[in-house]
């Protein structure tokens, strides 16, 4: 296995607003010296509570943000690369809420076409659009619709189709099912599982929901206050959690009454 | 019977959002309302306290302690709200007044309904803060909502709702905006307080495991209708409606995904 995407001593600090006029600006370390090696084909879950640095990590891995110190390496090369094209095509993202991540004034076909054009993907764009729309289980006639005409689940499928369009090797999904209803959530999880398996995608899945990670990921990283407090195979971490925070997290998940 | 809802129908223009809903709740009992977004569960809970928007057309009957809530005057409703009926909302940051110290907000229902003066209401607010498990209540009551964490804010919401020892507590997705470890604490707190006060509870949520841990009986709502009203146990063992069966199956799947990993089954 080769390392596809890697975080090396990755740190991101945000300056906080002044609390007093002329006072010093405090800062907050959202991510502290994070190391993470993502192998080709791995399905890695990042779990933690709000403010733990999950999304900061995702943004840095996507090169949508610049680290305060440390770096991200893609296929062994440190970002930013002189030509980011390969990276942008290879690393794609699905966000939490498709209502805000899809442009309401664009039709579905144009939404999916955008990465193909912006990232100069070669080949027949229209054919590729139909291909990915079908791959995410949407009927062909949604291509001419606007996002508001679709259901929440259909919208998230469009977001996934857009991410798949440039044939990425890594999919970073930041809370992809948190904004969805329970039954729809299940469908999207099945879709993501199928797609990663069939396309051999590397998956980085960020979620606060342990059952989502349990379903989709082989490895898990547990984050608290910007630090990875525990990591390992999903099975080991869930069955024998070592860190008190992981133990609390697992114990806090609401469970069903005994049968 | 504390709450008796008969044929409640809520329309906005020609759109029916709550369709012929009936259920009842005895004093001290707990009812869960579960459904997806748009199923009408929140509007149903708002109808119990007369908080539906003016644009809604409401028919049917909602009796609280024998008193008709539909068509009641604001004056009559105000006498009940925060007094015999307390409500906790989903997002405490929007439910609390950002410009008012939380001590004053907790004291308001006591001043309105119990005639307490400023000092007495603040003293009671401090007591309530301690009761909902907030550390350093003296400091907390002088804080503004933005100075508190999400879990702390929801505890303040709970303190306000319980200030006058209501006979009915309505909680609409009270932990959806909270982290799972905080959710666990707040749910335990709600359960404990409701038991101590002897209040009835209407617990609205989309989350079946949460609802089933908090209530004895569950109304499953889908597209404005109650498709099933059953005891929690019965719902899990033999749900009669296809939609409830789907909800149960999905919840079981998540639960088993976790169980499989944490206990080593299903491997």
Give a short summary of the structure.
The complex is a heterodimer of chains A (259) and B (267). Chain A is of the alpha/beta class.
Would you kindly provide a written description of the structure presented here, covering whatever features stand out?
The complex is a heterodimer of chains A (259) and B (267). Chain A has 10 helices and 10 strands. By secondary structure, chain A is of the alpha/beta class. Chain A has a 6-stranded mixed β-sheet, sandwiched between helices. Chain A has a 4-stranded antiparallel β-sheet with strand order 2-1-4-5, covered by helices on one side. In chain A, a hairpin with a 2-residue loop joins β4 and β5. In chain A, α4 packs parallel to α6 and α5 packs across α6. The model of chain A has no long low-confidence stretch (mean pLDDT 93). Chain B is of the alpha/beta class and 267 residues long. Chain B has a 6-stranded mixed β-sheet, with helices on both faces. In chain B, α8 links the parallel β7 and β8. The longest helix of chain B has 22 residues. Chain B starts with a strand and ends with a helix. The mean pLDDT of chain B is 92.
Keywords:
heterodimer; A: about 260 residues; alpha/beta; 6-stranded mixed sheet; 4-stranded antiparallel sheet; 10 helices; about 35% helix; globular; B: about 270 residues
